[in-house]
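Case 213 in the screening queue. Each case pairs one protein sequence with one candidate compound; here the compound is heme C. For every case the pipeline is the same: read the inputs, emit a complex structure as C-alpha cells, and attach any notable structural observations.

Predict complex for case 213.
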Amino acid sequence: MRLFRSLFLLAFVALTACTNVEQSKDVYKSDATGKELALQVCSACHGKTGQAVSPQFPKLAGQHQEYLLIQLGEFKEHRRSTPNAVAFMWSFNQLTPEQMKELAQYYSGQAPMIGEPTKSPLLARGKSIYEQGIPGSNVTACSSCHGSNGIGGKEIPRLAGQHANYIAEQIHLFKSSTKRPNGVAMMALTHSMSEEDIQAVSIYLSSLQVGLQ
Ligand code: HEC
Ligand code: HEC
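Case 213 output:
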C-alpha cells in the first residue's frame, strides 16, 4: 500500500509538477515574492489558494502563519524527515527568510480550509476523542490545544477541514517515529491510540466546516 502510494505520488509529480519544478529554478533566480512562488511552484500540489484537492497533499489555506513558518523551517533544515517531506519538501531549501515569511502570510490569509460532511459510523467516536480524550489512557483531549472547534492558533495547527488521509498519516508518524521532532507534545499522547481511534478522530476533523473565527 505504501509502495503503491509512493508510486502514485511519483507519477503525479512527473505528470503535473515537472514543468513547475523547472520553473522554480528560474523563479528562485529572479527574487520571486512568496505569492509568485505560491502560484507558480507550490500550487502544483497545494492548489492556488492552498485548498489542495488531492488528499495526498495537506491543505494550507487559513493555516496559521506561525505554524507554517515553523514547518517551512523544519523542511529547510531537513528536520521534518517524514517520507513525504523528504520526497516533496526538502528540495525547497533555497527559500529565503523573506520568501518563507511571505509564503506563510499568503496561505494564512486565504479563506480557511473547509471539510466535507460525512455519515461515517466513526464520527461520534472521533468527536468524543477530540473533545474528551480517551479515559484511562494518556490520550488527552485534543481540544485542550487545538481548540474546541479544531481551529488551533499560532504554532498549533488548524485541523478543522484538513484531509482525513493526511491527518491519519501524521498521527501514525507522531505515534511511532521521531520524524517530526518539533511535535514532541504529540508523540506521547498518540502512543496508545488504536488504528480505529486514529481513523475516527481524522474523519471527525476532516468533516468540520468552520470558517474564520
Ligand atoms: C510536489 C508536491 C509539492 C510541492 C510542489 C510543494 N509541496 Fe508542500 N507538501 C507536499 C507534501 C506531500 C507534504 C506533506 C509532507 C509530510 O507528509 O510530512 C507537504 C507539506 C507542506 C507543509 C506542511 C503542512 C502541514 O500542515 O504541516 C507546508 C507548510 C508546505 N508543504 C508548504 C509548501 C510550499 C510553501 C511550497 C512551495 C514553495 C510547497 N509546499 C510545494 C507536497 C508538495
Ligand atoms: C499539548 C498540546 C496538544 C494536544 C493535547 C494535541 N496536540 Fe496535536 N499538535 C500540537 C502541536 C504543538 C502540533 C505541531 C507539531 C509540529 O510543529 O510539528 C500538533 C500537530 C498535530 C497534527 C499535525 C497537523 C499538520 O498539519 O501536520 C495533527 C494531525 C494533530 N496535532 C492531531 C492531534 C490530535 C488528533 C490530538 C488528540 C488526540 C492532538 N493533536 C492533541 C499540540 C497538541
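Case 213 observations:
- The radius of gyration is 17 Å.
- Residues 13, 17, 37, 41-42, 44-46, 57-58, 60, 68, 71-72, 80, 82, 84-85, 88-89, 92, 103, 157 surround heme C (ligand 1) (CB under 6 Å).
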